[in-house]
């Protein structure tokens, strides 16, 4: 519903009269909006692979490269223990964290579309600077621009999808962001596999190809219709109703539009959304939607970062990447009632991964085939379980749980 998860009985009655059709405008909006996930996914997948490429290390981190060759029996984390290399990687996430506060303001004041366009421009500039980098300073500047793009995209795109989708299929539509995130990871892994063989400039191609989803999102963002929620919130009532009729494919939108107006009036009454998040009545949303679920969702990204920085992709990138992608996404639509036992499966498979990595990995030798297969199966099972539970919920709940007046502020806490 328009106002969030906690609604009054009158709003619930009106929701029974919502009407919608699957229109061309709605499908186009979903396709373009979901591209935002590929920006996040591509960077997650490409950065770990690039930082382990020899040509990249020789050019920017020669000491790391020499240590990599000299100490083959050390663990991978010891080989890549370098503060500047860590700064190159982490600067993106810090920039994303800081920029999401600005993105929250822009999303609320100027609309979801404005944030999507700004995010795509910043990500495009970051990809160009990184691909053309001549020194470490350019690399870090490029990463910061990428982080700003991700901050704006992760703030606005899931929100855009939630507000564009009809309430009855909102959960499925919002999973498009998760789907394209995983698609971006898979594409990045495949790109790294091939570009590593292109000496000495393959790493430039890996980083530069991030411009492709950024360009697509920018072009699409120019033609995207603004969400009716945002237009009503800005006081553009007639335009908001026209957009609602357009994406719903019907003139009979009185009930839903009335809910949007009520939610907008509530939003205008809130002058300090960040401060109000800390009020007692909003603590359940803050604790569950903005802190609890995102914290639980971080495990998959940490596991992926570890694997990308390792030599495991060289054991068979096709099998590794495609298996994880398929297992993750094919099971995402699984009904929620199957999620009860998922956390136990995640923990069990994570223990298997940890044991194998601790005992057999990072000692200067290639994993035996049996261990490698076991590791891949365990990771696939873990990621499939993640896709059944925290995967889609991590993007959906923060957009749905908070009332309209605090929705963008709530997504900032999620990003943090």
TrEMBL record:
Principal location: membrane
Matching Pfam families: Sugar_tr (PF00083)
Domain of life: Eukaryota
Keyword Transcription regulation in record: no
Leader sequence segment: none
PROSITE patterns: MFS, SUGAR_TRANSPORT_2
Cited SUPFAM superfamilies: MFS general substrate transporter
CDD domains: MFS_STP
Transmembrane segments: 22-42, 84-107, 139-161, 173-195, 201-224, 350-368, 374-397
UniProtKB keywords: Membrane, Sugar transport, Symport, Transmembrane, Transmembrane helix, Transport
Gene3D superfamilies: MFS general substrate transporter like domains
Subcellular location: Membrane
Family designation: Belongs to the major facilitator superfamily. Sugar transporter (TC 2.A.1.1) family.
PANTHER family the record matches: SOLUTE CARRIER FAMILY 2, FACILITATED GLUCOSE TRANSPORTER, SUGAR TRANSPORT PROTEIN 14
Protein name per the record: Major facilitator superfamily (MFS) profile domain-containing protein
Organism field: Stephania cephalantha
């Amino acid at each position: 519903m328009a106002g969030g998860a906690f609604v009054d009985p009158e709003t619930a009655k009106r929701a029974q009269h919502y009407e919608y059709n699957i229109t061309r405008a709605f499908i186009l909006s979903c396709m373009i909006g979901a591209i935002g996930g590929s920006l996040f996914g591509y960077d997650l997948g490409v950065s770990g692979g690039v930082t382990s490429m020899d040509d990249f290390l020789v050019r920017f981190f020669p000491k790391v490269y020499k240590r990599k060759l000299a100490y083959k029996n050390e663990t991978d984390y010891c080989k890549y223990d370098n503060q500047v290399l860590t700064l190159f990687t982490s600067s993106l996430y810090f920039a994303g964290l800081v920029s999401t506060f600005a993105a929250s303001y822009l999303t609320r004041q100027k609309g979801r579309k404005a944030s999507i366009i700004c995010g795509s421009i910043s990500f495009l500039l970051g990809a160009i600077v990184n691909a053309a980098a001549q020194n470490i300073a350019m690399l870090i500047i490029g990463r910061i621009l990428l982080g700003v793009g991700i901050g704006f995209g992760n703030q606005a795109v899931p929100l855009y999808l939630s507000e564009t989708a009809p309430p009855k299929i909102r959960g499925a539509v919002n999973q498009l962001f998760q789907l394209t995130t995983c698609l971006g990871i898979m594409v990045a892994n495949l790109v790294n596999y091939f570009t590593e063989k292109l000496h000495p400039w393959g790493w430039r191609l890996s980083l530069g190809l991030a411009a492709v989803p950024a360009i697509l999102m920018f072009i699409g963002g120019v033609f995207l219709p603004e969400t009716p929620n945002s237009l009503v919130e800005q006081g553009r009532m007639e335009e908001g109703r026209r957009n609602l009729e357009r994406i719903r494919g019907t003139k009979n939108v009185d009930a839903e539009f009335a809910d949007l107006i009520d939610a907008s009036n509530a939003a205008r009454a809130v002058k300090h959304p960040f401060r109000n998040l800390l009020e007692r009545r909003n603590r359940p949303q803050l604790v569950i939607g903005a802190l609890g679920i995102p914290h639980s969702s971080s495990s998959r990204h940490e596991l992926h970062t570890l694997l990308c920085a390792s030599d495991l992709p060289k054991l068979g990138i096709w099998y590794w990447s495609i298996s994880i992608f398929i297992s993750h996404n094919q099971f995402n639509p699984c009904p929620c009632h199957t999620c009860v036992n998922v956390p136990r499966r995640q923990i069990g498979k994570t223990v298997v991964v940890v044991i194998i990595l601790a005992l057999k990995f990072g000692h200067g030798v290639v994993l035996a085939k049996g261990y490698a297969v076991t590791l891949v199966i365990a990771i696939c099972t873990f990621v499939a379980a993640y896709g059944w539970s925290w995967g889609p919920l991590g993007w959906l709940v923060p957009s749905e749980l908070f009332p309209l007046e605090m929705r963008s502020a709530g997504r900032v806490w999620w990003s943090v």
